[in-house]
Specification:
By secondary structure, the protein is mainly β. The protein is built from no helices and 25 strands. The strands form seven sheets. A four-stranded antiparallel sheet has the order 5-14-15-16, with no helix packed on it. The protein has a four-stranded antiparallel sheet with strand order 6-11-12-13, with no helix packed on it. The protein is globular and about 50 Å long.
């Protein structure tokens, strides 16, 4: 049995909304291996990544294919040949070998560069630091939360890069933004977003003229669901179906796993 492939917003996408990556072997969901306060990773150290229980996914430092001296803090498929990156914290600001990623003493997730300056961080939502843990889940979701709870203070699924995975949703005012090139993970030229008004819209952006790390201007949309006022969320369910749900309980089908079987 094969699991559903992820939705990947490709750097060279034109009219097609979605491209599907090769099918991956299914794995039984296992209990997460919690990452405790004080745990850390370094790009060149003994421990460079943490794995999900099945080993399907990893979170940690990935060396850039285009520059061997720079690293992403990323989540990737570890059991496929090309180890596809599905999320990155610092897509527009790679770090060097002296960087560090840790679940800090104050309960925050912190990525620091080789000078010790914070590049990216996540607050734990006011939790007591010693009650905080992080985990790489078999779903591909990297989470921060309280012990013995499935309610997360932060999760990578709520901050997508250019990929959606099975069981993931996109709520209003969230989006996928393509990478610039296949091996350049910085902001790319295409954005698929669920707008606050309920419209699911596909835009080209002003990259590469837009400075890295800023909110780029959007050109006129060339596809929209036309659901202003009634659209709700984009859903990628575990069966491999992708659809846009409406507030009245109906939905707009985007694609189905059956189309790719």
């Amino acid at each position: 049995m094969a699991s559903s492939p992820p939705i990947f917003l490709h750097s060279t996408a034109l009219l097609p909304l979605l491209l599907l990556l090769p099918l991956l072997a299914a794995a039984q969901t296992q209990t997460p291996q919690n990452i405790s306060v004080g745990s850390s990773l370094t790009p060149l150290g003994k421990t460079t990544s943490w794995f999900s229980p099945s080993g399907d996914f990893a979170v940690g430092f990935r060396r850039l294919e285009s520059n061997n001296s720079l690293f992403l803090l990323a989540v990737w498929f570890d059991k496929v040949a090309n180890q596809t990156v599905v999320w990155a914290a610092n897509r527009n600001k790679p770090v060097r070998g002296g960087a560090k990623f840790e679940l800090a003493a104050d309960g925050r997730l912190v990525l620091s560069d080789d000078a010790g300056e914070e590049v990216w961080s996540v607050d734990n939502g006011g939790l007591v630091a010693n009650d905080t843990y992080a985990a790489m889940l078999d779903s591909g979701n990297f989470v921060l939360g309280p012990w013995q709870s499935d309610k997360y203070a932060w999760e990578s699924f709520s901050h997508s890069m250019d990929t959606m995975l099975p069981s993931q949703t996109m709520q209003p005012d969230t989006s996928l933004l393509s990478r610039l090139m296949e091996t350049d993970y910085s902001n790319g030229r295409f954005l698929l977003g669920v707008q606050p008004d309920g419209n699911l819209v596909f835009y080209p952006t002003a990259v590469p003229s837009c400075p890295s790390g800023t909110n780029c201007d959007l050109y006129p949309a060339y596809w929209a669901s036309n659901t202003v006022g009634v659209g709700n969320q984009l859903i990628f369910n575990s069966a491999g179906d992708v659809y846009f749900s409406l507030r009245n309980g109906s939905s707009i089908n985007i694609t189905s796993a059956k189309s790719y079987s």
